Amino acid sequence: MAPVLSLRGIEKSYGAVAALKGIDLDIGRGEVLAICGDNGAGKSSLVRIISGAQEPSAGAITLDGRTVSFRSPQDALAKGIATIYQDLALAPRLSIVQNVFMGAELTRPLLPFVHILDKRRMEELAKGYLGRLSVAVEDMHRPVERLSGGQRQAVAISRALHWDAQVVIMDEPTAALGVKETALVLDLIRKLNAEGRTVVLISHNMADVTAVATRVAILKSGRKVIDRPVAGLDADGLAHMVMTGKES
Amino acid sequence: MRSFLETYGTAVAGLALTLFFVAFAPNFAAPTNLLNVLKETSFLAILAIGFTLALITSELDLSVAEVASLAAVVTGALIQAGQSSLLAVAAGLLVAFGAGLFNGIAVTRLKVPSLIATLGTAAIAKGFAFMITQGVAFVGRWPAEFTGIARGSMLGLPNLVIWLALVAGGALFLVKCTRTGVHMTATGEADEAARLAGIATGRMKRLGLALSGLLAGVTAVLLTASLSSAAPNMAGDYFLYAIAAVLLGMTMFEPGRANVPGTLVAALTLKVLGNGLVLMGAAYYVQDIVLGLIIIVSVALSATALKKAAFKL
Ligand SMILES: Nc1ncnc2c1ncn2[C@@H]1O[C@H](COP(=O)(O)OP(=O)(O)OP(=O)(O)O)[C@@H](O)[C@H]1O
Ligand SMILES: [Mg+2]
Known about the structure:
The complex is a heterodimer of chains A (248) and B (313). Chain A has 248 residues and is of the alpha/beta class. Chain A is built from eight helices and twelve strands. The model of chain B has no long low-confidence stretch (mean pLDDT 92).
């Protein structure tokens, strides 16, 4: 099947530091791709390029077979690629609704040329998105700082649902979470995937990767050293590969 | 849920204070006195609502009073030079708006923290105001069409109160009912998150500061029309009051966040307090001491957003 997103010869340097050295990667429609690698391997750099947060120094990106370049995260989002940043993406003191619709608020006409926020519709939709993710929060006006870590991820994912993003990128979504909350987030990933969306997951947690990913790409010093299905791998085997950069 | 006390505590205290003065301050409840308090509140509240709009985007505007004074003398100079009231008012508003926009550009493009940038603008505005007037006040004859802006009344309501209602209603509508207002709030709450969500955060900050300048201009026009004079330091006394109103306002309705209804109630409370103290025979300096205490206690209570704006140096 044709990939949703393909990267060819992606390079990124920060001054003298070459963070990515010619990455080729195909992301298939409907898969959960895990990107693994040691600290400094280039995972975040790669994700920032796919999500439009920064431009590659060289290389090409094709989306659904067309060459694209993303000017900003917003541009990438409009093209169907949503990124869930670990903690930067939510405004803690604003409500669930305000966070889900941040930057994409719905309005309704009040007078000719005067549009006001359609608060009721946003509230209903936000409730619907969280419902689809099986997260039960009654009060859509609760500030997100009063939600659990997993529920916050659900709010961030709801934003991707609102944009109907085809590709959802998550950079270490379980890094700060306990066991129960991690299970919730993994469940959210499965739900997204069950809706036919492609998920790109950055993780240091090999158990998470084997639990939800269908394929894994391992980076080492800015190069992709391994790219294979997850089936048949366990967490220890995967950890060994990340460390050595070789299939065992 | 926040407790009732947390959300409405200081507003209720303001109400209690008002009732106290009604009962014990001689003449406080007289209609002419109440009307005066209301008029005084209009100047303060309009100025403070401007400050509020800037602070909603997490930027301080310490130049409001000096910018208002500058706008007042610009308007005054043009009227005294025989220009039409319309032109004079437009020029005053434009100068104030321009000063606000200048603040916005200094903060977002030149990356000068607003605490510093607006302090600089305050000094510049003060300099220009003294330059225009050469240090003296514009008094003399003012056309009735100009003074009527602030002095008349409509449908039994003083014009000043109507202006305040329009400004407060407009600001509230902007903040609560429009996308722009929500974007301003998001910018102030979480700059980086807002930017990642595609919100033009720099533009929102420029808008907040420009509106703050514009409302300083509105205050200036109303003050000048009401007092029939324009002096280079005429709004100076409003500076601490405006800050106190915004900070006290941040302790109510939406604790920790600058908000229009809070600023409005706080401005009224402060003016009631000042008036009541005078009527009860307190010395003039007591007001300043009380004002200082209110500023500090308000911030201690809940004004975390202000701490953020002030300390991102
Ligand atoms: N903004 C930057 N400026 C300079 N160097 C950078 C910058 N961002 C990343 N680097 C460097 O690029 C390399 C790759 O970094 P990157 O953050 O992509 O790694 P990572 O795989 O996400 O690591 P981690 O697991 O620690 O998050 C590192 O050597 C890092 O020091
Ligand atoms: Mg990283």
